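Troubleshooting: if your tokenizer reports a length mismatch, compare your output against this known-good record of 457 residues.
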Amino acid sequence: MSDSTKYILAVDDEPSMLRLLEISLRQAGYQPLTAKDGREALDVINAQKVDCVVTDLHMPRMDGLQLLKEVRKTDAELPVIIVTAQGEINSAIEAMKNGASDYILRPFDLTELELAIKRALSFSRLVVENRFLREDKAVGTGLIGNSPAMQHLAESIRQVSPEKATVLVAGETGTGKELVARAIHAASPRSNALFVAVNCAAIPHEMLESELFGHEKGAFTGAVKERIGKFELADGGTLFLDEVTEMPMQLQAKLLRALQENVIERLGGNRPIAVDIRVVAATNRNPRDAIKDGKLREDLYYRLNVFRIDLPALKARKSDIELLATHFLAKRRVEISAQAVQVLMQYDWPGNVRELENVLERAAIISGNQLIQPQHLPAEMLNSTSEFIAATALGHDAAIAEAPHNPLCLPNAVEQLERQLIAQALAQTNGNKSKAAKVLEISERSLWYKLSQYGIS
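Known-good structure output:
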């Protein structure tokens, strides 16, 4: 039996009609399953894979309409076709309102039944694909920044997206590896197919093989149904393997074979299944170190590393921080002060862009969705800024001594420091504001704002 075989469940309390449905389904190339009423049908659905249900409307114990409602409680995507008599159109319409995929009237011929099943199966596939595509559009690319590092990243994505080459994305946690993978998919010829993401570190090792390659019924204890894996689901699209170095070495060998031959086998099966996918893999480790540590097969590394993208840490592109902050806060319609931006610029961001987003969300809550000031930021960032003040040529004490009003007010101390650093940058660049902004690692627009704010000519 081929892997494309579809299992169709026929439900009818009349033995002769059930037998006719069974024969008709087999002649149409489907694998028929049968049940005498709704309750028996639910037992079949719970016990094994079912691709479509064809059910009579009137049956004892549980009729077709009640069966439909029970199915919809647990599976919104399993197509259900109602078989009804000529005089029961209203009942068929009610079934459609409750989620039936289609209905056919008795007496029907084999062609009519076949067409109804094909329509139902096609619609079910579209429902799954649309759900994935909606999730993709909701996430967006999210790649924000105009620093040289981000411009280089954008160029790399532009170069590799039209190709089928496997991509390896390396970068610290929180740098946006999945966003890069989604951007590659969105700009590729596969953008209308599915983008399927698997976090290899988040799935228990004993379940990861089944998650990736699927399994046959009875492959292991609890495998009561056949199940397709992420490779089959991503057929025609892109499969993103996050934290690939956390995959067991034995499974890495199976992944290597799948990538080389474009063929997989389900767990517990021996039938080759051809797949057409583009793989983007990611790791937060140095791949060479992962090989030395026994976390990554060297042959798999060479197969994944066809096109390499190294993501910069946020501390290596601090000039993007203001733009990122504006982007994240726009969702809440909240603004951030120049002083608070300066505090963000002095922090090293071990958690990268993800940490920045979380910090800003917290700050917006603390500020009551008003203008974010330094005091709304975490204490460790303010401490970092204070240490930076102490390390300047004028020193921390001088900054406090010149601060007006309350000498212990941190915003005032930060303002004094900003004045001094701006003056030093302008002196260093002979008054060239564009160059001074680069020295300060802020945008030229921010520098003009600060010059006006502090009355510096």
